[in-house]
């Protein structure tokens, strides 16, 4: 576990329950990245203060971590995600985007052939990222 003055992060492969405290600075946010591809997914996430390391996520499995947003709400987790010829780097959690109704306590991402799909806590798909690097021959060009 990495501990900073205002931010805490922990990468794990098991489901954890959020703390039941309503203060936004003492409540954990949980991020889930689910691999819906037919091959392994390589994920490397980091914030300004914490490097969560590289992880291999098998098909139909997920990678998750939890953290507390910092006091000035600048918490940002950026992830490099790849599988075969598909790859890209994405802002998976941004406090100013996500902490106000999108996914304050649970941010879910599903990685598919057509890109990375982000879901709000109410289950609505509201944020999609295309693959940044998909070799042309993957699409028959």
UniProtKB/TrEMBL annotation:
Its main location: secreted. Pfam families: Self-incomp_S1. Signal peptide: none annotated. Keywords: Secreted, Self-incompatibility, Signal. GO terms for biological process: rejection of self pollen. GO terms for cellular component: extracellular region. It is found in: Secreted. InterPro entries: Self-incomp_S1. The keyword Nucleotidyltransferase does not apply. PANTHER family: PTHR31232, S-PROTEIN HOMOLOG (PTHR31232:SF18). Belongs to the plant self-incompatibility (S1) protein family. This is S-protein homolog.
């Amino acid at each position: 576990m990495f501990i900073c003055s205002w931010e805490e992060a922990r990468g794990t492969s098991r489901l954890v329950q959020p703390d039941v405290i309503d203060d936004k600075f003492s409540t954990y946010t949980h991020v889930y990245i689910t691999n819906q591809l037919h091959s392994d997914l390589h994920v490397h996430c980091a914030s300004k203060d914490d490097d969560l390391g590289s992880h291999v996520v098998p098909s139909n499995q997920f990678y998750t971590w939890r953290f507390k947003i910092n006091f000035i709400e600048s918490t940002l987790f950026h992830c490099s995600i790849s599988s075969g010829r598909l790859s890209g780097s994405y802002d998976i959690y941004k406090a100013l985007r996500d902490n106000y109704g999108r996914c304050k306590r649970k941010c879910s991402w599903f990685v598919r052939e057509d890109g990375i799909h982000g879901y709000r806590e109410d289950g609505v798909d509201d944020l999609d990222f295309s693959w940044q690097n998909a070799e042309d021959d993957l699409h028959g060009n």
